[in-house]
Sequence to fold (121 residues):
Amino acid sequence: MRAVEAFFDVILGRIADPSVPLGCLIAQSAAQSLTLKEESVQVRGLLDLQRQRVHAALADSSVDSRTIDELATFVVAVNQSLAVLSRAGASDAELRSVTRLACTTVADTLARATSEDVTQS
Fold:
């Protein structure tokens, strides 16, 4: 869970950093990918790499792989949404609220899945 929180902290730090270009290469490329097949494959690869990293960070928990896969996809989706929201003018407080709710969702899902695994054992 701490890895997910740290992941979002890094993202929010980059969003707030005026020296970092606005927007997200992945989000911008995906928006263009309907006509650019090669970029679509590259975007998918970058998203898969993010998902794999989040999956690896959550893999230490005792929950099943399917739940970890779903959570990793959710975290990456929230990450991409942060880029879009920031580009649309969302405040730092709004972005932090999104990440706080996302972290709560991940923690609750992990806790529920862990308790279900214990109950089934």
Remarks:
- The helical segments are 2-16, 25-32, 37-58, 65-87, 92-120.
- The CA atoms of residues 43 and 94 lie 26 Å apart.
- DSSP finds five helices and no strands in the chain.
- The chain has a mean pLDDT of 83.
